[in-house]
Design brief:
Layout: E1 2-6, H1 14-23, E2 28-34, E3 53-57, E4 60-63, H2 67-75, E5 85-92, H3 104-114, E6 119-125, H4 130-142, E7 154-160, E8 170-172, E9 177-178, E10 185-187, E11 195-197, E12 204-206, H5 212-217, E13 221-226, H6 236-246
Length: about 250
């Protein structure tokens, strides 16, 4: 298996380097990642300037763009495009519930799926046990040949910040969602210009049984299948009835 690895925390981040080192023991791996932290970049692509991909070590390339840029370039044969699976992460911190809307890690996996490759996004819900997350990923890959997913579906994996032998197992989950985001925070600017930090994440609003929040809180790895069809099918019929009255 030939594996493309990317992330949103930057090419030197501990999570992606831990995962890269471990996977190279079993697979042929290439790391293509942003040259800086791009957390929260979501699915943005750089369209108004050219991008540079620099070889920094053997089979490691940095890109002066977003996570989605990295995967797009790698699969467009800037490296060579020949990959069996794309792994995004290990992300520093959770990608649970509506975090996936903003996540550059999930976006890297999404871009891979758009370009026809199987993809997994993996995150450590904490900042300590990256080796545990790397081992969980290896466990998943070793049995991935027996898994068939529909076109356009990727796996979003969140690993509790625990020693590997304390993880209880795997739960297949749905996305929960958080409460409303915290308000923006005023910041000091050296020239006195008004500026702000975006507010931090809120606590879960739906962390009930079956959600990704619940699984990780209970010590399980959460695996949630994701796809990008955001159509709200439940309201199509009522909207059609409403639209028929709007235009005569």
């Amino acid at each position: 298996m030939r594996v493309l690895i990317s992330n949103d925390d930057g090419i030197e981040a501990l999570g992606v380097q831990t995962r890269y080192r471990k996977l190279t023991l079993s697979y042929e791996c290439v790391l293509v990642a942003p040259d800086r932290n791009c957390s929260g970049a979501s699915n943005s692509l750089t369209l108004r300037r050219p991008l540079q991909a620099k070889a920094i070590r053997n089979n490691e390339y940095s890109v002066d763009g977003t996570p989605a840029d990295c995967v797009n370039l790698a699969l467009s044969k800037v490296v060579d495009g020949q990959f069996d699976v794309v792994i995004a992460g290990i992300n520093h911190g959770p990608n649970l519930g509506d975090d996936v809307i903003y996540s550059g890690t999930v976006a890297a996996a999404t871009e891979a799926r758009h370009l026809g490759r199987p993809a997994i996004a993996i995150s450590l819900v904490g900042a300590v046990h990256f080796e545990s997350a790397a081992q969980v990923l290896e466990d998943i890959l070793q049995d991935s040949h027996s898994l068939t997913l529909p076109k356009g579906v990727l796996l979003n994996v969140n690993v509790p910040d625990l020693p590997y032998d304390q993880i209880k197992g795997i739960k297949i989950t749905r996305l929960g969602y958080r409460k409303s985001p915290q308000p923006a925070i005023s910041a000091q600017h050296p020239k006195g210009v008004p500026c702000f930090w975006i507010g931090g994440l809120s606590e879960p609003h739906d962390g009930s049984l079956g959600t990704d929040f619940w699984a990780v809180d209970k010590g399980y790895v959460s695996i949630t299948p994701l796809h990008i069809d955001m159509t709200c099918y439940q309201v199509l019929s009522s909207l059609e009835q409403w639209a028929s009255k709007v235009l005569i």
